[in-house]
Write a structure and sequence with these properties.
The protein is of the alpha+beta class and 113 residues long. It has a single domain (28-107), classed as Glutaredoxin, CATH 3.40.30.10. The chain is 35% helix and 18% strand. The strands form two sheets. The chain has a two-stranded antiparallel sheet with strand order 1-2. The protein has a two-stranded parallel sheet with strand order 3-4. Helix 3 (66-85) links the parallel strand 3 and strand 4 (89-95). It starts with 9 loop residues before the first helix and ends in a 6-residue tail after the last helix.
């Protein structure tokens, strides 16, 4: 423990959770809500440690979205520029594609996870 406050609503938390089932009442670290593995460049399997300690951007996109298809190449170039300056940055693709084929087409244009 480092002495930092993890909740200002402790009284409300106790009232809402009288058995302590949800204790401790602090937010999960972001990495805990991510998948345990990712698809990396070229289809390589990466585990969660690939993003540990990095500043993350989440990119929600789908092949069926015209605006996404237009934006993805711009974001890819921006990502390359930022990564050259800040290697501790990563983008995670959150696919809304409806099938594996569409996912693979989308992901082929992306230099990130």
């Amino acid at each position: 423990a480092d002495g930092s406050t993890i909740t200002k609503g402790g009284r409300d938390a106790v009232s809402a959770d009288p058995t302590g089932e949800d204790f401790p009442w602090k937010p999960l670290p972001f990495s805990a809500v991510l998948r345990k593995s990712f698809v990396g460049e070229g289809g390589a399997a990466l585990d969660r440690s690939a993003v540990d300690g990095k500043a993350l951007g989440l990119y929600f996109s789908a092949r069926s979205c015209p605006r996404c298809r237009e934006f993805t190449p711009k974001l890819a170039q921006w990502y390359r520029n930022v990564r050259a300056k800040l290697p501790g940055f990563e983008i995670v693709f959150v696919s809304s594609d409806r099938d594996q084929s569409a996912f693979e087409e989308s992901f082929a244009e992306m230099p990130w996870i």
